[in-house]
UniProtKB/TrEMBL annotation:
Binds 1 divalent metal cation per subunit. It is an enzyme of class 5 (isomerase). Its cofactor is Co(2+); a divalent metal cation; Mn(2+); Fe(2+). This is Ribulose-phosphate 3-epimerase. A divalent metal cation binds at residues 33, 35, 66, 175. Substrate binds at residues 8, 66, 142-145, 175-177. It catalyses: D-ribulose 5-phosphate = D-xylulose 5-phosphate. Its EC number is 5.1.3.1. It comes from Candidatus Bacteroides avicola.
Amino acid sequence: MNPLVSPSILSANFSNLAEDIDMLNRSEADWLHIDIMDGVFVPNISFGFPVLKHVAALAEKPLDVHLMIVQPEKFISEVKATGAYVMNVHYEACPHLHRVVQQIRDAGMQPAVTINPATPVSLLKDIVGDLYMVLVMGVNPGFGGQKFIPHTIEKVRELRDLLDSCGSRALIEVDGGVNLQTGARLVEAGADVLVAGNAVFSAPDPMEAIAALKSL
């Protein structure tokens, strides 16, 4: 089965954002990945809900919203108001993760949890049964264009084994350093969803780059 592709608009041209979203609408992309950063949980600030509101109005694909922020549970209603399909929070940012996951699902969105490169897969054992998706970071979160961390491949394999052993049907998503080379290895290891930023928007033909990732 071919992977889902969720291009990250963090790498889009914000002076022509409407054009880039139109391109994604016409492409084979499955979702639009939205990285929201607060400058606290990660050392960068991206954009907030005013921008996301306009993105949501233009987008014809489901929104895959990834909150790289402290206390993401405070913004469940704001994310829901954008019509988001997936709300993704970081394991490291949620001391009461099970409650947050329940709140996301109760709000009518699909709950997902992200783990940073240094966070062990095993810590997810007690929550994977409640998740729609797990996102494994292939770089340290905060900036686009970083070099892929090779150990991510092994983490995806380990996560696939954990999901299978728990009977969980959660999807495995990978964000950071994803291109055709790393993407092929990730899909072979068990990844279901590929988030790609630079590999799409820096390509000579972004729509062709998305189609190539879809064919992995």
